[in-house]
Design goal:
By secondary structure, the chain is α/β, with parallel strands linked by helices. It has 13 helices and ten strands. It has an eight-stranded mixed β-barrel, surrounded by four helices. It is globular and about 50 Å long. The chain binds ligand C2E and magnesium ion (3 copies). Ligand C2E binds next to strand 2, helix 3 and strand 6.
């Protein structure tokens, strides 16, 4: 209960806080049911080689179509799942779904899956789930990439390195997601040997105007060439942004300019006809 008096008291009783608490509790309770009854869906967004417009990979992005509340953003429900014990169930559903969908795609297109830091805290369970999809679905491990955020590196570096090594032995590849916004330093790029580093969307919108941001992006690309990882620019929406990114030497990009996340059916059909995205 709140203490009376003090200047924080008004904050403790704001009605919208009660409403958001209620919503979080409802979503947490409804998530398990939603998972069992088919309310979740995977959408896929292309990762494209800028010069050729070839799709090299698809990022799997989770969607929750709630029967009463409508489409709920993963930015809202993933943190809720992470605070309950549901994130591993969700994560395993995503792995299974992606393993089934990958069969519909041309062999040269890989699939990139977001993995929560909380899943990395149960390494045995994560490794078992990934081993299972490789074996049960005969998914070639080298077509699967796991996207980690910087926080997993900060949490428990030794355990993370060990888990990554175990998964790498299967042939799994790793991308560092949202680089440039979290807590990780440039030193992590050398320690963890990521295959890809995804530069956060916040850089895309400023790179053509802001010299300092452009210098940071150029530095990351320079390190990529020296250390041996590939940079992906996230969140590109305009031709101007694509040109500014390409000028830094970055070859891979993702964003609404190339395609929004969508269901596998129509996307797989178009990619089977051609993996090159038409110029727009
Ligand atoms: P993320 O992994 O960084 O994914 C990229 C996000 O940026 C996606 O949001 C995508 O729809 C959005 N995006 C892509 N291109 C553009 C663009 O040009 N402009 C703008 N404004 N946005 C763009 P989404 O799908 O809402 O996902 C949000 C976050 O939720 C993801 O960020 C990821 O951290 C998390 N997430 C999504 N699916 C999963 C999942 O299966 N498991 C886990 N653990 N997290 C997931
Ligand atoms: Mg991601
Ligand atoms: Mg990202
Ligand atoms: Mg993000």
């Amino acid at each position: 209960e709140a203490k009376t008096g003090g200047k924080n008291r008004a904050c403790l009783f704001r009605p919208e806080m009660a409403a958001s608490f209620r919503r979080r509790t409802e979503l947490e309770n409804e998530m398990r049911e939603g998972l069992a009854s088919g309310q979740f869906e995977l959408h896929y967004q292309p990762i494209v080689e800028i010069a050729s417009r070839k799709v090299v990979a698809l990022e799997a992005l989770l969607r929750w179509n709630h029967p009463a509340k409508g489409r709920i953003s993963p930015a809202e429900f993933i943190p809720i799942a992470e605070r309950s014990d549901l994130i591993s169930d969700l994560g395993e559903w995503v792995l299974e779904r992606a393993a089934t969908d990958i069969v519909l795609l041309p062999g040269e297109v890989s699939v990139s899956i977001n993995v929560s830091p909380m899943q990395f805290r149960q390494p045995g369970r994560l490794v078992a789930a990934i081993r299972a999809i490789i074996e049960d679905h005969a998914v070639p491990a080298d077509r699967l990439e796991l996207e980690l955020t910087e926080s997993v590196l900060v949490d428990d570096p030794d355990q993370t390195l060990a888990t990554m090594a175990e998964l790498r032995a299967f042939g799994i590849r790793f991308a560092l997601d949202d680089f440039g916004t979290g807590y990780a330093s440039i030193g992590y790029l050398a320690t963890y040997s990521f295959d890809k580093v995804k530069i956060d969307r916040s850089f895309a919108s400023v790179i053509s105007e802001n010299e300092a941001s452009r210098s940071i992006v150029e530095l990351v690309q320079h390190l990529a060439e020296r250390i041996g990882f590939t940079v992906v620019a996230e969140g590109l929406e305009s031709r101007l942004q694509v040109e500014a990114i390409a000028a830094t030497g970055i070859c891979l990009a993702q964003g609404y300019f190339f395609g929004k996340p969508e269901a596998i059916g129509p996307l797989a059909k178009r990619l089977s006809a051609s993996i090159v995205i038409p110029e727009r």
